[in-house]
């Protein structure tokens, strides 16, 4: 299992990384631009991410723009439907417009409001059809 955590807040990145680490390999990015580049590189290497957690409010490129870029990269590479990467938007905002934009403009699969809780995140990932098994590291 391979995860990408995109969040400009160090503590949030570290928390999500700690939660997901027992279940696979976790890479992190500090903003949307870095996250899109990591996503693109992983696809080119033939090692795509299974799940991406993506903060909405970030400098340089926010989560909404990053999600649209990620979906564009997938289209360019012929990835669609159930083959698309599972993206969970994470935000400190419980804002209807942000939720609407994430789902309808960016094809987000899920949305979680901070503070991030371990069981909520794990349950959300599993609700997307992703089986989480602790890796033998």
From TrEMBL:
Domain of life: Bacteria
Annotated SMART domains: REC (SM00448)
InterPro entries hit by this protein: CheY-like_superfamily (IPR011006), Sig_transdc_resp-reg_receiver (IPR001789), ST_Response_Regulator (IPR052048)
Pfam families: Response_reg
Response regulatory domain sequence ranges: 2-129
Keyword annotations: Phosphoprotein
Aminoacyl-tRNA synthetase among keywords: no
Residues the record lists as 4-aspartylphosphate modifications: 55
A GO BP annotation: phosphorelay signal transduction system
Full protein name: Two-component system response regulator
